[in-house]
Amino acid sequence: MYNCAKCPGYCCSYPLIQLTKRDVERLAKHFGLTFEKAQKKFTTSNWEAKYAMRRKKDKIFGGICQFFDTDARRCTVYEARPAICRSYPGGRCGYYDFLSHERRAQDDETFIATTFSKLEKDNMAK
């Protein structure tokens, strides 16, 4: 099993993190807001989902859940996280599978693959 505490937030970067009405209610309670204010502040909607988590920019994945701390690489609303996050991975974790494959390919159990180009790495170091 992979320890999620070592992950850079792969599942939090999914383009769609679908929420239920109950998830929005849980977030509203967590922040002391009405349902309507929480819905407006934390969600967006599209043809795939009535309630979808708003996203923000992320230097690793491009976009990520608005509640993800991009420096500490951790959820900031863990106790109030949506049901989909609570049930993840529900089977197999894509990041774990990717990391396992790369470690076997590199013959290095500590190898961490990145998705950055050299230019991006150099810019991040500044």
Give an account of the 3D structure:
The protein has 126 residues and is an alpha+beta fold. The protein has one domain (4-125). The chain contains five helices and seven strands. It has helices spanning 21-31, 35-42, 83-87, 94-106, 118-125; strands at residues 18-19, 43-44, 51-53, 55-58, 62-65, 68-69, 74-75. The strands form three sheets. Strands 1-3-2 form a three-stranded antiparallel beta sheet. A two-stranded antiparallel ribbon has the order 4-5. It has a two-stranded antiparallel sheet with strand order 6-7. Strand 4 and strand 5 (62-65) form a beta hairpin. The protein is elongated, with a radius of gyration of 16 Å. The N and C termini lie far apart (35 Å). Mean pLDDT is 84; it is low at 117-121.
Rg over CA atoms, rounded to whole Å, is 16 Å
- Principal-axis shape: elongated
Overall mean pLDDT score?
84
Helix content: 25-40%
Helix count equals 5
Helix-strand topology string:
EHHEEEEEEHHH
Class derived from helix and strand content: alpha+beta
Distance between the termini: 35 Å
Number of domains: 1
Strand order of the largest sheet: 1-3-2
Total beta strand runs: 7
Low-confidence stretches: 117-121
Strand content: 15-25%
> Can you summarize the main beta sheet?
3 strands, antiparallel
